[in-house]
Amino acid sequence: DDELQTDGNRSGHFRNGELGLAPTNEEVIRIIAAQLAEIGDQFDKEIQERVVNGLVQQFLNENLSNEDIAQYMSRAVRELIQAIPADMEQEKAMLVLAMVLTKKIVNTVPSLLQRAFNTTRAYMNQQFHNYIVEMVSAVKQ
């Protein structure tokens, strides 16, 4: 039921007390997703293969918890954010980087889809929940 969507075609909904948006907000979510996808396409070219391969190795390590892997992802995002133009909102850039990294990890090792998605979703909910809510509210106005 959970979907990883970065192209704005369809929206997923968080559950269990996490970010939950009513179906009437689908158009707002599509607008935001389209903006994030455009930024993601720009970032996609900038992410070095060594960063992706390093994260793949962390995801493949069954001894690491999702929280440990999320810390590795957070570190990679913080490193990559240094190359992002200063005029871009840092939280937005970090959110997009996390999504693009997840996409690249899954493209590299498709069997990591579920673990990568679940870890990234938890990371985004922990780090960017308020920012996502603010983005939705801003577009609605």
From TrEMBL:
It is found in: Cytoplasm; Mitochondrion outer membrane. InterPro entries: Bcl-2-like_sf, BID. PANTHER family: BH3-INTERACTING DOMAIN DEATH AGONIST (PTHR35447:SF1). It comes from Prunella himalayana. GO terms for biological process: apoptotic mitochondrial changes; positive regulation of extrinsic apoptotic signaling pathway; positive regulation of intrinsic apoptotic signaling pathway; positive regulation of release of cytochrome c from mitochondria. This is BH3-interacting domain death agonist. Keywords: Apoptosis, Cytoplasm, Membrane, Mitochondrion, Mitochondrion outer membrane. The gene is Bid. Pfam families: BID (PF06393). It comes from the Eukaryota. GO terms for cellular component: cytosol; mitochondrial outer membrane. The keyword Cytoplasm applies.
